[in-house]
């Protein structure tokens, strides 16, 4: 594979493993990458700017305020590169990045960089095991950084243990994989829904659910990173580089999904859509005093009455009855207009009989895939950064994915769907 046309930033921090980065640069150059080196002041003690300038055939960047042009260096470098590699990543630099500290050019550059970042840590084994370092690594992984963990072996400090910089070829392999995945969904138009719908009771209150939208957002980010044209239909307001349509209710979501679906290659319904809505929401905030008059919100259609009980100061029971009507089943309605070349993916959140219920839904809704979540597991699912799912296709084949970060799970799901 060639890296022709790819622009890569190599960040080097202060550590004895810095000399190994020279070999990585040599291999990247051999694959026709355009490489620029950014070093911390401490890194100068381990590798010279002359060496790096000779290898990269580019200027070497170190000082934050050595700006020959009008545009700040950490912005211009961030805009110009496709990938940022930090090899080796010291404990000090990892801590700064994880906590948003920008006290040198390299850390400032990371904060301004919105494309893939790879960190290859190297340090003493006891430092690597330190709980603060591990917390920072977890924080960076959750934020979407690619971490290549250190290897075990004899260290320069004389210790034996985990802390040695990962093999250069493994780092190179990760670079190639990221660039290869960058075109995985190129040309695909994918709609993804995210978040829990909010069905209004009055201008203040609503019926909702515990969905955070994290899984849908992770899928949209992953699809975009793989080169897809993404439309995110979300109840969660986010600022993204792809198209985002914000809304609140199931009815609004159905209308928008129908409008967008005709040009789509796939619809992934990760949103938690409320099964019911209030038949007719109140135009004004409902007062407690109204409850004593047995106020009923809604009416006119077949409905379910759900009493809300409260007690006033005299201890008398007060009721508010909500008339609920069924929301449309978005996947079912879309399946009617779905073409053979379009992919329809649903999500299924169950607390019991997970696989059995998921397989029933894949048939009743004419889905190509369903992603089944077990919400009885408190360590995953709602508002967690982790999930564990079973991916089921329309042939009823199952792929079980154990607990993993939703950001990584999203990539696995997309690869399974579009393989």
**CATH fold node name of the largest domain:** Rossmann fold
Helix content: 25-40%
Overall pLDDT: 89
Structural class: alpha/beta
State the major sheet.
8 strands, mixed
Uncertain stretches of 5 or more adjacent residues: 300-306
Overall shape: elongated
Strand adjacency order, main sheet: 13-12-9-14-19-20-21-22
**CATH class category label of the largest domain:** Alpha Beta
Evaluate the radius of gyration.
26 Å
- Total discrete domains: 3
Topology:
Layout: E1 7-12, H1 18-30, E2 34-39, H2 49-56, E3 60-61, H3 73-80, E4 83-89, H4 91-98, H5 105-112, E5 117-121, H6 125-129, H7 131-142, E6 146-147, E7 151-154, E8 160-164, H8 168-181, E9 189-194, E10 199-200, E11 206-207, H9 214-225, E12 229-234, E13 243-246, H10 250-261, E14 266-269, E15 276-278, H11 288-291, E16 296-297, E17 304-311, E18 317-326, H12 330-337, E19 343-350, H13 354-364, E20 369-374, E21 386-393, E22 398-405, H14 406-418
Parallel strand pairs: 1-2, 1-4, 2-3, 4-5, 5-6, 9-12, 9-14, 12-13, 14-19, 16-18, 19-20
Antiparallel strand pairs: 7-8, 10-11, 15-18, 17-18, 20-21, 21-22
Helix pairs in contact: 1-2, 1-8, 3-5, 4-7, 9-14
